[in-house]
Amino acid sequence: MKLLIILHHRFELWQAPAWFAERLRKNFPQLTVVHLSDYKRVNEQIADADIVIGWSLRGDQVRAAKKLKWIHSTATAVHALMSPELRASHIVVTNARDVHGSVVAEHALALILALAKRLPQAMHYQQQKHWAQKELWESSNPPRELAGATLTIVGLGGIGRPLAKMASALGMRVTGVRQRPDKASEGVAVTHGLEQLDDALRQADFVVLAVPVTAKTDRLINAARLALLQPHAYLVNVGRGVLIDEPALIEALRARRFAGAALDVTTEEPLPPDSSLWQMDNVLITPHIAGLTDRMWERHYGTFMENLQRFLRDEPLRWIVDKQEEY
């Protein structure tokens, strides 16, 4: 049985470390493990692969995979895999939602706290050596409490569920928006369907986007929905940049129609130097680091090993992606 690992990326941390394949060979001697450092030999090596670890395959590569039964993505988002060929196949897809979910939720909560407590503005004044207590208090959006504030989480999956528990523990009132609102989630006071998103946005003090990218969620937050946010509301995106209509976001932020935004993801990454978002005093940018942790690849190994054991025993896999829904 053959396992092919192909995770090439310009950012080294997204690539599987050498020890990952070596440990698999040691723990699963019945497997032939091939670890590619780039995409040059994918078509050749995928032809007889039973399992692939990767987040991006073209349709022709899926067609070339005559024995492929399972693809595991080390990302949560799987839209880069979803070719018509893969959708039509019997290949099972799993993702890493439980590896990244709680870590990204921590980052989302950190962004909420930073916005609520005006930390970016305080750091700006720190660089000027200015004790800006009066300025921060008298600003249009002074520091505020989280307890009692309404947090709307769009997407109650691997990120949204742990975030709801964290936020409710701080006394926030959490509302959720999800495709299937009949599913209960711990810490969520009210769950709305996607068709009720507009009402949920109107009521929110903080909005966190943690929904997967699908045909339904591409540019989900457009100019009309940005206009629904309260003047004191903050928007946080830890999902994907394309969830927001970025030109509409820039226009709304310039007009100060709502308090501000924290973005860990943007439509184009890296964010171009000429983007207006860099210079806005009501925007906090982190460079797609919400999922980064020194334990990330250990967590990847643990979850993949669990599923691999299930696969080898012909048991149902965990974290299966619905290929039609793309999550």
Q: Percent of residues in helical segments?
A: 25-40%
Q: What is the CATH T-level topology of the largest domain? A: Rossmann fold
Shape: elongated
**DSSP helix count?**
12
Describe the biggest sheet? Answer: 7 strands, parallel
Strand elements, count:
12
| Oligomeric state, counting identical vs distinct chains | single chain
What's the name of the CATH homologous superfamily of the largest domain? Answer: NAD(P)-binding Rossmann-like Domain
CATH class of the largest domain: Alpha Beta
Q: Which strand order do you get reading across the main beta sheet?
A: 8-7-6-9-10-11-12
Distance between the termini: 27 Å
Model regions low in confidence, pLDDT < 50 over at least 5 residues = none
The whole-number mean of residue pLDDT values reads 96
Work out the count of structural domains: 2
Protein structure class: alpha/beta
Q: What's the CATH architecture of the largest domain?
A: 3-Layer(aba) Sandwich
Q: What's the SSE pattern?
A: EHEHEHEHEHHHEHEEHEHEHEEH
- Give the percentage of residues in beta strands: 5-15%
Provide the gyration radius in Å. Answer: 21 Å
Structural features, described:
This protein is α/β, with parallel strands linked by helices and 327 residues long. It has helices at 18-27, 42-46, 59-64, 84-87, 97-116, 119-127, 133-137, 160-169, 197-203, 223-226, 246-254, 296-312, and strands spanning 2-6, 32-36, 51-53, 70-72, 92-94, 150-154, 173-178, 190-193, 206-209, 234-237, 260-263, 283-285. The strands form two sheets. It has a seven-stranded parallel beta sheet, with helices on both faces. Strands 2-1-3-4-5 form a five-stranded parallel beta sheet. The longest helix has 20 residues, at 97-116.
